[in-house]
């Protein structure tokens, strides 16, 4: 199609100004102001491709993905999603904004990755290179972060620095123990320092 075009069914809506859809392979490409929307999610970007059979897709340039069921917004210039095995990768100015109890939490990194562990039972989250995070009572920077729902421990690498309620915390490596979306305790390893 060449020009503004809408596609929709009972639950999904798509729009783009240029693209194609292969009815045999069920692979599609949508370009120029592409929009995908269903009752819980909206994705806008410059272009996106989608493989319906494999349930995987890629969005390029100025990507904004919103999930209203999880109060989550993801932005970046490259987003890749696969259903099986579950995988989400966001690169190039990657950012996640997550709202809990009215408090927005911002996380920025060069690359963000969400997938399942080797057992397939637990989600893991990685943010790496130039990580920055902000919320109303906490700011941090680190080289990289790894979090697994298997043990609910967030691991911070590369000389992380935290600013928490008038305190500055520095260390070479830190483990934060999370329960009910709240930080319960933390451990500093190698050269740990807390300044009040």
Description:
It is a single chain. The chain starts with a strand and ends with a strand. The mean pLDDT is 88. The protein has strands spanning 2-8, 13-22, 27-37, 41-51, 56-67, 72-82, 87-100, 103-116, 123-135, 138-148, 153-157, 161-164, 167-170, 173-179, 182-189, 193-195. With 196 residues, the protein is mainly β. It has no helices and 16 strands. The chain has a 16-stranded antiparallel beta sheet that branches.
What is the strand and helix layout of this fold?
Layout: E1 2-8, E2 13-22, E3 27-37, E4 41-51, E5 56-67, E6 72-82, E7 87-100, E8 103-116, E9 123-135, E10 138-148, E11 153-157, E12 161-164, E13 167-170, E14 173-179, E15 182-189, E16 193-195
Antiparallel strand pairs: 1-2, 2-3, 3-4, 4-5, 5-6, 6-7, 7-8, 8-9, 9-10, 10-11, 10-12, 11-14, 12-13, 13-16, 14-15
Query: Order of helices and strands, N to C?
Result: EEEEEEEEEEEEEEEE
Could you name the ranges where pLDDT drops below 50 across 5 or more consecutive residues? none
Class from helix and strand fractions: mainly beta
Q: How many strands, which pairing sense, and closed or not: the largest β-sheet?
A: 16 strands, antiparallel
Helix content: under 10%
How many helix segments?
0
Q: What general form does the structure show?
A: elongated
């Amino acid at each position: 199609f060449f020009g503004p075009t809408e596609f929709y069914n009972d639950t999904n809506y798509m729009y783009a100004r240029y693209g194609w859809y292969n009815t045999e392979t069920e692979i599609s490409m949508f370009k120029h102001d592409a929009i995908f929307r269903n009752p819980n999610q909206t994705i806008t970007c410059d272009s996106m491709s989608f493989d319906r059979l494999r349930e995987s897709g890629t969005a390029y340039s100025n990507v904004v993905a919103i999930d209203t069921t999880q109060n989550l917004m993801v932005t970046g210039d490259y987003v890749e999603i696969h259903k099986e095995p579950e995988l989400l990768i966001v690169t190039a100015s990657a950012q996640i904004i997550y709202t809990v109890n009215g408090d927005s939490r911002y996380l920025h990194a060069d690359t963000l990755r969400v997938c399942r562990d080797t057992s397939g039972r637990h989600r893991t989250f990685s943010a790496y290179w130039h990580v920055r995070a902000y919320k109303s009572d906490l700011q941090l920077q680190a080289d990289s972060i790894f979090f697994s729902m298997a043990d609910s421990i967030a691991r911070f690498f590369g000389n992380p620095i935290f600013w928490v309620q008038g305190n500055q915390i520095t260390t070479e490596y830190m483990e934060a123990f999370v329960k009910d979306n709240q930080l319960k305790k933390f451990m500093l390893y190698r050269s740990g320092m807390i300044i009040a």
